Amino acid sequence: MDDLIANYHSDLNPKVFSSCDDQTPGSNNCLDCFKRQYYDGNEIGYDCVEKRKLYLLRYFPAHKAENYQGAFRISDDVIDDWMGHGYIDILSVGGGPGSDICGVLEYLEEEAEKREIELSVNVIRIDIEDQWDDVFEDVMQRFFPWANCQTIHRDVNKGLDSISDERFDLVIASYLTSELSTKQCMNLANKIDSVLTDGGVLMINDRPEDVVEKDIRSMFQSIELSYEEYFLSGWAGYSYPNDIANAVGPKFRMNSRMFVGVKE
Hints:
alpha/beta
């Protein structure tokens, strides 16, 4: 993680702000532009390469830790079954830079090492944009080059339709449902249910906000998946160098609501 954070920090180019044609209103530098996009109805987007670097620097370690904690809460019986087969098929919906996948794979890798087995993992990542591809491929090569990954560039509905004949042991959606309407969440739940194998796990991680949590609970209830929910807090486990921490203002602590359900 040290190399990842150091490399992306050294690659920041704040000088581009002065000539940028897509500045968030009222912002006066790249970091300010990045932060202001989330407020006052401003457009949120990551077409800007500097925004993508800042996103990784500020959030990747914490979001990775949240998804690790979600995987940690999958029941021992399910994990034992996966390890017994020696392979796991994973679907990441709206995967972005891959913090969700990396968090899960870190936990699964540890479990495989405990059992002294070789684990085969196939990952399909659905993301409508290709802007995160370089970052995703970079982090996967750094941390989990052994995992077999494929990306589908479609919106989540068309992406799920394109793999309707496949079945997955684990489906992950991290910081996605908060970007969808209630109707879109319900539609997503039905499509996920259609590709989730019996005994498979649905793991949803998102902001701890009442309206978001309500939609997620409704998703599990609509497809009759039993689930547990957890509030994730506490230090995310990564110590930033002081100069980088001061420069980018990262998320040091986990702060999300995690839902983990099993298809009976």
